[in-house]
Design goal:
Blueprint lengths: L1 H21 L5 H17 L10 H19 L8 H6 L5 H17 L5 H4 L34 H10 L3 H4 L4 H14 L2
Helix pairs in contact: 1-2, 1-3, 2-3, 5-7, 5-9
Length: about 190
């Protein structure tokens, strides 16, 4: 995974360096569109795979997002960036990974996703009457190894899904779920 993060970060920083030369003459809304097309899309492509990575690797990806926000808003390099990320309505990289993981989990649990993901997740159905029966919990698979098994989609998605509030877990509509999830993740900062 380190090679993948290194490749993404070097490509994104190279793109940002080239964009910096022309961005003085471009308005902020166009800057945002161009940056989203060339940089943010690379960060988001397959970012569910980054869910089990170390904080160090996720930090490298966060620096790319911070540099993109500084470039769009023309913010000095030494100023704090979190308020500017919120202004752009961008979640931090770790929250973006969680967002993507949970949207895939929502699709899989409601049989709206690809078949290979639908088979990986299912709702928890207790064998006897329990209070947790109507809470839309995901069944967490057992893992034999804490490293590889703990990073699998089935395990991470189920654990993260079960940590959501009940109002989010019981939402059926996918677009409403995405909207509520993004709001909830913004509040979790």
């Amino acid at each position: 995974m380190t090679k993948q993060v290194n490749a993404v970060s070097s490509a994104c920083f190279l793109t940002l360096r080239m964009l910096r030369k022309i961005f003085r003459w471009i308005p902020a809304d166009t800057r945002k569109t161009v940056t989203h097309a060339l940089v943010t899309s690379r960060l988001d492509y397959g970012n569910t795979l980054y869910a089990g990575t170390t904080a160090k690797l996720q930090n490298r990806l966060q620096r790319i997002q911070n540099a993109s926000a500084r470039l769009i808003l023309d913010v000095p390099r030494n100023s704090h960036i979190s308020a500017h990320l919120r202004h752009l309505h961008w979640l931090p990289v770790s929250k973006r990974i969680t967002f993507r993981l949970l949207t895939h989990a929502h699709k899989a649990l409601h049989n709206k996703g690809p078949e290979y993901l639908n088979r990986r997740l299912s709702f928890y159905v207790p064998t006897r009457p329990l209070r947790s029966a109507g809470l839309a919990l995901a069944a967490v698979p057992r893992t034999r190894r804490s490293t590889a098994g703990g990073r699998s989609f089935s395990f991470l998605a189920a654990k993260t899904w079960n940590s959501l509030p009940t109002s989010l877990r019981t939402t059926q509509d996918h677009s409403a779920f995405r909207r509520l999830l993004k709001t909830w993740l913004f509040e979790q900062r």
